[in-house]
From TrEMBL:
The keyword DNA-binding does not apply. Keywords: Signal. The lineage of its organism: Bacteria, Bacillati, Cyanobacteriota, Cyanophyceae, Oscillatoriophycideae. This is PEP-CTERM sorting domain-containing protein. InterPro entries: Choice_anch_W, Ice-binding_C. The keyword Metal-binding does not apply. Residues 1-27 form the signal peptide.
Amino acid sequence: MTNIKKPLLMLSATVVGLLMLPSTASAFTLSHLTSDSGYADSKTDNKYSADEKFNAIFGDDAFVAEGRIGGKTTYELDIHTVNTDGSFNVPQSREFTWGNGVAQAFSLIYDKISKKVTYNVGKQTITYTASNPFTDLFIRTAAVVANSSTKVDNLKLNNVAIAGSSFAQKTANATENAYDYLRIRGVSDSFTLTGFSTFVWTGTAPTQSRLAYQIKAVTTTDSTSVPEPSATLGLTLGAIALALKTKRQKQTV
């Protein structure tokens, strides 16, 4: 009996330790994809725009939640997917009125079991059922009008503050459009992302996505899957149980 007590104590300690591990949704890392200076000549000087850097590692998309400056005949909010030819499939969209310099709250909720996506901005809600898995979230901001900017900040993932934001600003004399990507790496489970988006412009409000942000749930070619705590727990307990069984069998021989 004494010979079994010690392994059982070790087993109990292992179970407690594994149950205390953070979920995969909180075990994320942050990084940025930004445009290199002079990226307009990227074909000759090996400098790339943020979009080029993203496209280089893009695998497939599950969904993209977007907020943009639209226009009188187009929408401002949508959830879309990207077709193989680069065109958009937009199953859900809504109209929305943005305020110049006004921080607008949003939330994006994904349920892994039902695969339901819920995107809320103001009093507008868009839902979508995703079909593809994903490994990363990319928050892309774009500003393509002089004296304008797009910012997404005050982010929280599963109510945990994210020490990062995405900000794209095109100054008065800039010749290149501004793009920025905040990468939240290691998100593949259910999640709730909240934050604020702010569009700033001078003069007449721009149209047709000249100020925009997207939250892209995608798989990338440089991602590696992280085992979920439940899977790690099962594998570890199985290994310990097998070791105990083997030890008892040796003792009875």
